[in-house]
Amino acid sequence: MNLGLLINPIAFSLGPISVHWYGIILGLGALAGLLLAIQEGKRFGLSSDFFMDLLLLGVPSAILAARAYFVVFKWDYYSQNPGEILAIWNGGIAIYGALIGAVICAVIYTRRKGYSFWRIADICAPSLLIGQIIGRWGNFVNQEAYGGPVTRRFLSGELHLPDWIINQMYIGADGLYHHPTFLYESLWNVLGILLIFVLRRRPWVRAGEMFITYLIWYSIGRFFIEGLRTDSLAFMGPSWLSSFMDALWAPMTAMFQAGYLDPSYGTVRSSQLIAVLLIIACVVLIIVRRSTGMASERYNDPIINRKTGLPAGVEPGAEASSASAKHKENQDEPRNQKPTV
């Protein structure tokens, strides 16, 4: 193996400051998500400034919550190494924590702006997916979030991966190749974003359902991919819950072996449990919102600002000015015109 092809996690240095690929990749993911949201927002009259402000508030909220989520589950380590709690450039952020932080920020921001959270979340659903599609490659550079051991032949012969990916999946700590679970999740999210692009143009889609679809799609993929990983956040759960999670994952055993989870660390992978609960909650939410009339708006309906009662992009007084101008135009038309024969 040519170890010279391993990627240096540090992209470049500016004096004492090292710029990591991890941060660059996360930044590119956020930028791609912003551009997608701005493009779709134009259809509804939302300005680019609206989404830029949301990004400036949402990204720090997501990162802080993601890191806090990770640190809580790894507290035994970080309590002994408090200086590493803020070292996110070395990896160690949890996507479900990021979602919690982003959603809380978005709810507050959209309400202050006078918009429905569901309408804005729908527009941002592809942005979240593209951010994860790109962001997972930060884990690739850092050689983290990988799965259980595999052979090089599996990576090259079965998956047909190029050498630059295969070599990065060689983990020097144990001298073995590992499942590129970062790649599995990235590709799963590519399918998810294509699905949302198709569904959001359907006339029967209700407001909020694109964001809910994103949550369901991501959680399905995360549940099965998480079972391959060897670095899962976990907790000591009851035996029936552990058996239930294993039974749900059982269909994967026809092709893969589950990643090792140290029973002294935990018996239930937290991301798997959250994924299952989220899928159930989202399905119930769709049914309840439709049956009670809470989802009366459709995705393609105009987005109304609840403070002004006007469609997004229309400023108060703009309609009155337009009507006044139209009235004046009618008044200025000649009144003694002969009818055209």
UniProtKB/TrEMBL annotation:
Cell compartment(s), UniProt: Cell membrane
Sequence ranges of Basic and acidic residues compositional bias: 326-341
Primary subcellular site in the record, as a coarse category: membrane
Keyword Cytoplasm assigned: no
GO biological process: lipoprotein biosynthetic process
Pfam families, per the entry: LGT
Residues the record lists as binding a 1,2-diacyl-sn-glycero-3-phospho-(1'-sn-glycerol): 136
EC number per UniProt: 2.5.1.145
Keywords (A to Z) from UniProt: Cell membrane, Lipoprotein, Membrane, Transferase, Transmembrane, Transmembrane helix
A GO molecular-function descriptor: phosphatidylglycerol-prolipoprotein diacylglyceryl transferase activity
InterPro entries in UniProt: Lgt
Pathway: Protein modification; lipoprotein biosynthesis (diacylglyceryl transfer)
PROSITE patterns: LGT
Bilayer-spanning residue ranges: 20-38, 50-73, 85-109, 182-199, 211-228, 272-288
A Gene Ontology cellular-component term: plasma membrane
Membrane-topology annotation of the record: Multi-pass membrane protein
Source species, domain of life: Bacteria
Region Disordered: start-end pairs: 305-341
Primary role: Catalyzes the transfer of the diacylglyceryl group from phosphatidylglycerol to the sulfhydryl group of the N-terminal cysteine of a prolipoprotein, the first step in the formation of mature lipoproteins.
Family designation: Belongs to the Lgt family.
Protein name: Phosphatidylglycerol--prolipoprotein diacylglyceryl transferase
Source organism (scientific name): Paenibacillus herberti
Gene of this entry: lgt
